[in-house]
Give the backbone structure.
Amino acid sequence: MDTHPGAKLARLLLAGFTTLVDEVVVELEREGHPGVTATHAFALDAIDAGAQSASELGRSLGVSKQAAAKTIATLEELSYLDRRADPQDARRKHLTVTDRGHEMMAIGAGAFDAYRTRLAGQVGILALHSLEKVLRVLTTQRV
Amino acid sequence: MDTHPGAKLARLLLAGFTTLVDEVVVELEREGHPGVTATHAFALDAIDAGAQSASELGRSLGVSKQAAAKTIATLEELSYLDRRADPQDARRKHLTVTDRGHEMMAIGAGAFDAYRTRLAGQVGILALHSLEKVLRVLTTQRV
DNA sequence: GCAGTCAGACAACGTGGTTGTCTATTACCG
DNA sequence: CGGTAATAGACAACCACGTTGTCTGACTGC
């Protein structure tokens, strides 16, 4: 590890992500939402936050509109969203998150937060804030 | 973000990973190793570190032996490894990293390390060490 | 020496992306 | 007003990277 600290850092970041996400997926399954992935939760979040169509969702997630459409089809299948004709624009299908969708989002967000809180309890809130700050630098600045 | 700090943490971890990896992939391409992904580099690393067969590589990467075999096929295609019959065990195909493979590993590790060093320059080595410690807790302990 | 285990090949499939093409609809501008 | 450009979404083909299942051939241990 001391011989490849950079690569080790990359592995740690990925492992941290998957650990957190796996935990949340398990919790969602336990709470009556099997078959949900982190991708689904993030997409539903983006829709609830304002992405009103497949094209918009794609832009907001940074993927193609076709990929977004597939995610939407899955979410509709799982009854997490409704798709209706947009009265203002006949090209569009307007998206709204269902009650079940909101419930799933709440459980997911709660599980993420609970995990983060437990982690803060182990390493200290200051260390966690520091980590988040470093990651913001890493992801937003030309390092 | 303050409303969903846990989910935000997950996004930061993933974004941090992809930022780092994308940087390294670009550097590898620039240095004469196009078409290489982080998966390839990690697999080659595991092979060089002792994984001597597809089954072993799969175990060491935590994937099925079939998935490992596919990665190996790609790496062989790209001239990063040789596969020869094992004289001791006719079932096995012995794996060795080629010179070009070692060169690619060196460039990749160098790029990872360089990025980490630049990051340390921006946020301080102490913050980086703290981050790595938190991630080790996150990934190795029952939080 | 035979039963069980292990390595690897092959096939079928799933997921989550991609590009490309097509039609219908809307927006813009001369 | 009308024609052209841009946009939304559907559909198809494809790709990367993983999965499970099945099969054969080769070792291992009792």
